[in-house]
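User: Okay, second chain of the day. Same drill as before: sequence in, structure tokens out.
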Amino acid sequence: MKPDTRNSLLVAAAGAVGLLAATLYANRRGQYDLSGRVVLITGGSRGLGLILARQAVAEGARVAICARDADELERARQELAEAGSEVLALPCDLTQAADVTALVEQVQRQLGAIDVLINNAGIITAGPLDNIELRDYQDSMDTHFWAPLHAMQAVLPAMRRRGEGRIVNIASVGGKVAVPHLAPYCASKFALVGLSESYRAELLQYGVQVTTVCPGLMRTGSARHAIVKGQHKKEYAAFIIADSLPMLSMDADRAGREIWNACRRGDAEVILSVPAKVLSAFHGLFPGTTADVLGWVNRTLPAPNGSAGDERRRGYESESALSQSWLTGLTRKAEKRNNER
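Assistant: Same drill. Structure tokens below.
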């Protein structure tokens, strides 16, 4: 074997070993045991929140979930309770500070002191800037910034008194890199990342670990609940197809396991999926180039649609032959599995 060939093989082997070692290190479990812990998950009735609740219940945690839709909550509660765990399902408008305070007090009365708070509730609005209105930004900020802030302020007094607690804020890679046609979502997730990192820095001294989670696309089945604007059918088709492709999106159950591992370890931050890690790293090194590349990506997305595009429609109201094609098969399966229908 020629020296150059041998050296190339050695470098490739070393790279593969390094990648495997890095993956194993990133996925290490951590020592924080969920058994007997009280876990509150916002937006826990479907999608990623329900997946996280299932995994917590499987480990023996006492779980409280909240969301606005009472019917969704009851379906989720029934499923989770089948495992024999104590599950509390409470309707709540998380954008109202008084409602969040009442929620936390009720969980503490019925289950005990909250050990882990997962701020997972979210909304997503997809569309070009010309069709995005002030209301879209306000709704995103209410859900992604104010709701987590209300929840953290409600649980922190007891956590600080006990000298321990875990808070996990589900942000997004869109909170680190601004993506075209997701301006309200990205702006509010940027705010959540800043809030989460600030809280971590100041709460470590009290034994409270705050973890910021920045996932890329995940196959949770939640795309059908997205708000779409502009050319509704084209916008939704582009969104759900990207959300479904294995090379771009991540299996949601695996994402849930990695989130819990990061919580157990008390990590400051975890970025989920290879594309999200690559995008975030590239943006950190070359922010201007990243913005220019995304500007070119924007040119491939559906154009604005005049005043007709200002109408807010859900994804399931914007179906087309393309959005219902084989390209979205994985997301359709996730919809049924994760209470999205």
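The chain has a mean pLDDT of 92.

User: Thanks, on to the next one.
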